[in-house]
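FYI - complex with adenosine-5'-diphosphate, inputs then prediction.
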Amino acid sequence: MKFPRPIRILLVEDSRDHAVFFRVALGKAFKHDHEIDTACSLAESFERMDEKHYDLVVLDLGLPESQGMETIETFFRVRGPSNPVIVLTANSGEDIGEDAIRVGAIDFLTKGEFGADQLARAVRYGLERWRQRMELEEAQRNLKSFAHVAAHDLKSPVKSISLYSGLLKEMMQARSADEEEIEYLGFVEAFAEQAEKLVDSLLHFSVLGEKAIALDEVDVEALARQAVSNLTAKVGEDGALVEVAELPKARADEGLLIHVLQNLIGNAIKYHGENPPHVKVEGVVRGGEVQFSVSDNGRGIDPKYFARIFEPFKRLTGVNDQEGVGLGLAICQRVIDAHHGRIWVESELGSGSTFHFTLPLAEGHEQELEPVGFERVESFR
Ligand code: ADP
């Protein structure tokens, strides 16, 4: 890879002896191709970074004002993830280096266990990893904004096609036009409605993850009822029975969670079998998190498709194609990922499906360890 010339490095290290060692080691590794400044504390490092751009920060985790993970967490809180950081740890036996990488550092080195060559390699590979990370983020941003702009610009013409084809069909019906012509126009109207749904879902999908999620204590039971009430037309149309048990509270973003519940309950009704849909929403507190489930008596899913259905635009063949666009479960997956939860499905073809997802527990609700029964089931038929 091509390195910036000279590489500008900021060494944040309060021990003079260690700082001298680094200067010498970096000097050996990069000859005259580097500039190195030193800061003795986090506060001083922030001042330096305000004055000058650095290609790399080498951060000792043991500083006068903070120790260990607190040092790197404070660093990223103040500066954001805008600089590549290699951390220096005092002890090789601890997991702290790996924890530092988990929160955003590009590498870690244990003091006393490396020489100039290892240092040079860590810097080179670290900078290359950083460059790749930046390129990937840029590509993801471009793709997202492209999807957003495309969906946004398509929304208005697609809506107009849907509107005018509807009007035209009414006018033709009023003057008793040819049956076949009316039928064809009906197709145009139905396809336009389908395109409208696709554009709306795409727009929704493309903005997910743009804003930071707002975690709050959420009354999931009330939210599930709200989701069912938003689906009233669907529930009525399919003669569905939806039962919501007493549900534990969770820490979640209410605005996002309602989409998950609506998508899962909506699917449970939509993909019904021969019998009228019967859907149950339940929840248990387990292992420090809350596990919710939405189960149905519908057509079921072949296990070989379990992973595929969560991917964007993946729909299963043989299903009523007019109904969906294949983004519902991808949206659910993204929302649950953003909460650091998991979502999965259990099902057998012809025997109904159960979608499970986990969320962080609301504070103060750790004691509710028993599964919650169906004593207070609400039905929405
Ligand atoms: P959409 O419903 O728009 O097609 P989704 O992403 O919500 O998209 O679902 C992807 C596919 O997973 C659906 O096309 C359907 O085949 C299958 N699926 C989802 N939920 C269920 C369910 N409860 N029962 C049976 N199949 C389901």
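Confidence is low (pLDDT under 50) at residues 372-376. The CA atoms of residues 90 and 112 lie 8 Å apart.
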